[in-house]
Specification:
Aspartate Aminotransferase, domain 1, 2 domains, alpha/beta, Aspartate Aminotransferase, domain 2, binds pyridoxal-5'-phosphate
């Protein structure tokens, strides 16, 4: 019998207060295990695209132990430490644009990394004599974290909920998805309209280079990126990438930006940096951003207590060692397309599936109404939730989302395994996932006939 924790037996303020949660007592590779030995196959790298190296690695644990014994804490405000120095050097060496990134600031997670990037972008504008540049432009369909500033970055009222009054104004443009804007021209026109209105006040454009949960594995067409880069140059605003998920190999390169025709001025990254063994995030700044601040006040205030802490940085250095030693970024680049084909083949006869897309080990499955293969499915059908339920019933951990009420995306699933998953584990994940989606289709198709089509635009 499974050891799920029921709401009445827990003191944890869990996201779903009336749900039971499996109690995970152990993890090994891509397997999560309850105390009674019930095992879940993890197609989501620890559930949230974090555990890129798999769970239970003794080499990472040993690196943490050795560093904790040497020096576990030394506050970043007045001190630095060899692990932080080494990690910063290694990250700028692996960043895109061939050495054009100069400095790294460490934090403890994704939202913090995005907020630190926002602070740096604003400092840059103020330090170069443009205090009037404060506005941020961002694509609406995104997720950047649950803090007030990062919630403001997304244009999704469904996520803002009752917190809307606390969020500063961010100007949003529609995402240039295949469904709404396949060429990227509509998004560029929306950007131009904003720039014509308040172009002199724009500080930065903030986005995911390749999206994670909001639009799994989606990236705008090159026309959009090229147009964005040209406008950033012309109007004097920065381009910031949220690579919280995509940084450190997820899409088959160290950073997703390498694969796109644009070089961000700031990159925020987090999840894969700690690989699920420590809470760490980072912001990488390009040389011109760093030099502007250095030549101005020479200060980057407002750090966190745990910024650049020795144990977290030692773990991240070990994560980088493993990625290199085991050539995992190259493996993800090589095996990603094979995995995507396998997934697409396994889902080929599911009429609810409209697209399987992806880069590296960040794959997305999009569902649509089979009656026109385009309209979103009615939210009441709860397709995303059903997929995750059907998957967990088959002892598979997946992550599906349903941002339909925000307008730009419907039900979708992510498929983002650890880079170390074996071929047979990947096959097993695909098999269980396809079985789950088939089961959901069997539940939903009969109900669908009685539901009107929901036009998407
Ligand atoms: C793209 C993206 N940005 C930011 C975040 C927020 O990261 P954290 O939960 O570590 O604050 C997430 C978390 O899922 C994410 O997927």
């Amino acid at each position: 019998m499974s050891h799920a924790v029921s709401p009445g037996a827990s003191h944890v303020l869990a996201p779903e207060l009336h749900a039971s949660y499996p109690l995970i007592a152990r993890g090994e590779g891509v397997w999560l295990e309850e105390a009674d030995g019930t095992r879940y196959l993890d197609a989501m790298s620890g559930g949230s695209m974090v555990a890129t190296l798999g769970l239970g690695r003794r080499d990472v644990v040993e690196a943490a132990r050795v560093q904790a014994r040497r020096v576990s804490f030394a506050h970043n405000e007045w001190l630095t430490n060899p692990q932080q120095e080494r990690l910063a050097r290694r990250l700028v060496e692996r960043a895109p644009a061939d050495g054009d990134y100069a400095r790294v600031s460490f934090v403890t997670g994704g939202a913090e990394a995005n907020e630190a990037a926002l602070r740096l972008a604003r400092s840059y504008q103020v330090e170069r004599g443009h205090p009037e540049r404060w506005r941020i432009i961002s694509p609406a369909q995104a997720y950047h974290g649950p803090t007030f500033a990062t919630l403001a970055l997304t244009g999704r009222p469904g996520l803002h909920g009752p917190l809307a009054p606390y969020l500063f104004e961010v100007l949003h443009i529609p995402p240039s998805t295949k469904r709404f804007d396949p060429t990227g021209e509509r998004a560029l026109a929306a950007l131009d309209a904003i720039l014509a209105d308040v172009g002199d006040e724009v500080c930065a454009y903030y986005c995911e280079g390749v999206s994670a949960a909001s639009l799994p594995a989606y990236t705008p067409p090159n026309t959009f990126w090229e147009g964005l880069a040209e406008r950033a140059q012309r109007h004097g605003f920065l381009i910031c990438f949220d690579e919280i998920v995509t940084g450190l190999g997820r899409t088959g390169s160290w950073f997703a930006a390498e694969q796109l025709p644009v070089t961000p001025d700031l990159i925020a990254t987090a999840k894969g940096l700690g690989g699920g063994y420590t809470a760490i995030g980072a912001v990488l700044a390009r040389r011109h951003v760093y030099e502007t601040i250095a030549a101005g006040s020479g200060r980057v205030p407002l750090g966190h207590t745990w910024s650049g802490a020795p144990v977290a940085c030692a773990v991240a250095n070990e994560v980088l060692d493993i990625l290199e030693r085991e050539e995992l970024v190259a493996r993800v680049a090589e095996r990603g397309p094979v995995l995507r084909r396998r997934l697409a083949d396994a889902l080929t006869d599911v009429s609810l599936v409209s697209e399987v897309r992806g880069r590296g080990f960040l794959l997305g499955v999009e569902y649509a109404d089979p009656r026109d293969d385009r309209c979103f499915l009615a939210p009441e059908l709860r397709v995303a939730a059903r997929v995750d339920q059907a998957a967990i019933a088959r002892k598979l951990v997946t992550l599906s989302v349903q941002p339909t009420r925000d307008g730009y995306a419907g039900d979708q699933s992510l498929f983002a395994p650890a880079f170390t998953a074996t071929e047979s584990e990947l096959d097993e994940m695909v098999e269980r996932f396809a079985a789950a989606v088939h089961a959901v289709e069997a539940q939903v198709l009969p109900v669908l006939e009685a539901t009107p089509l929901r036009p998407t635009a």
